[in-house]
């Protein structure tokens, strides 16, 4: 383990809200610590597409410094309402019950956190212009792969390949645990 086992208070609150909502699909602690570290380097507006119950947002908030702001969108209104509980008194975090595409006009973002679960939605061509020059994109929920091109479930992982080779970004795949990796890409 490369970090202390204690969790930031805001993350603990997010886990509590997730449990009460019966929501078990959320950002891993390993990815969360990466998000907190990256958020500490950002100013301006950060965003998350697909809030769930707010665990990823809580990790971002735990690392955020200064007057940065987080916008996060969750399509499922019940989950968005649960996440909003965590940040009800925090003017630096705004939780929207909306499709992530509604955030498109609120960028460009200094950091953008996405789930790789729907490759068509998070393809590099759909996301690139939402990130400011020098901005960071984090895509999580990849299965680590040592092959090139990357193979997942017997097929070329086109999404990962696109993000790792797109000339608009400098990108790397980072293992966050033995069974999980994230792609971190910086806009040139």
Estimated structural class: alpha/beta
| Mean pLDDT over all positions | 92
Radius of gyration, Cα only, in angstroms?
16 Å
Count of individual beta strands? 9
What overall form do the CA principal axes indicate?
Answer: globular
- Strand order within the widest beta sheet: 3-2-1-4-5-9-8
Helical percentage: 25-40%
Largest sheet: 7 strands, mixed
Strand content: 25-35%
Q: What is the element string, with H for helices and E for strands? A: HHEHEHEEHEEEHEE
* SS element count, helices: 6
Poorly predicted regions are: none
End-to-end Cα distance: 32 Å
Structure description:
- The chain is an alpha/beta fold and 188 residues long.
- It has six helices and nine strands, in the order H-H-E-H-E-H-E-E-H-E-E-E-H-E-E.
- A hairpin with a 2-residue loop joins strand 6 (151-152) and strand 7.
- The longest helix is centred in the first third of the chain and has 13 residues, at 9-21.
- The protein starts with 8 loop residues before the first helix and ends with a strand.
- The model has no long low-confidence stretch (mean pLDDT 92).
Write a short abstract of this structure.
The chain has helices spanning 9-21, 29-39, 55-63, 77-86, 124-127, 158-165, and strands at 45-49, 69-74, 93-97, 109-115, 131-142, 151-152, 155-156, 169-177, 180-187. With 188 residues, it is an alpha/beta fold.
């Amino acid at each position: 383990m490369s970090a202390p086992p204690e969790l930031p208070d805001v993350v603990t609150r997010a886990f509590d809200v997730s449990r009460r909502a019966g929501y078990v699909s959320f950002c891993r602690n390993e990815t969360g610590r990466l998000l907190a570290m990256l958020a500490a380097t950002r100013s301006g507006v950060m965003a998350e597409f697909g809030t769930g119950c707010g665990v990823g947002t809580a990790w971002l908030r735990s690392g955020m410094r200064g007057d940065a702001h987080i916008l996060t969108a969750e399509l499922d209104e019940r989950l968005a309402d649960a996440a909003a509980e965590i940040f009800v008194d925090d003017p630096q975090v705004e939780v929207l019950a909306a499709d992530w595409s509604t955030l498109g006009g609120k960028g460009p973002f200094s950091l953008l956190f996405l789930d790789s679960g729907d490759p068509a939605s998070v393809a590099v061509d759909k996301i690139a212009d939402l990130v400011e020059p020098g901005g960071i994109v984090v895509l999580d929920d990849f299965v680590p792969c040592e092959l090139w091109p990357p193979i997942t479930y017997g097929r070329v992982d086109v999404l990962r390949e696109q993000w790792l080779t797109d000339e608009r970004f400098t990108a790397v795949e980072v293992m966050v645990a033995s069974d999980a990796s994230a792609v971190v890409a910086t806009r040139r």
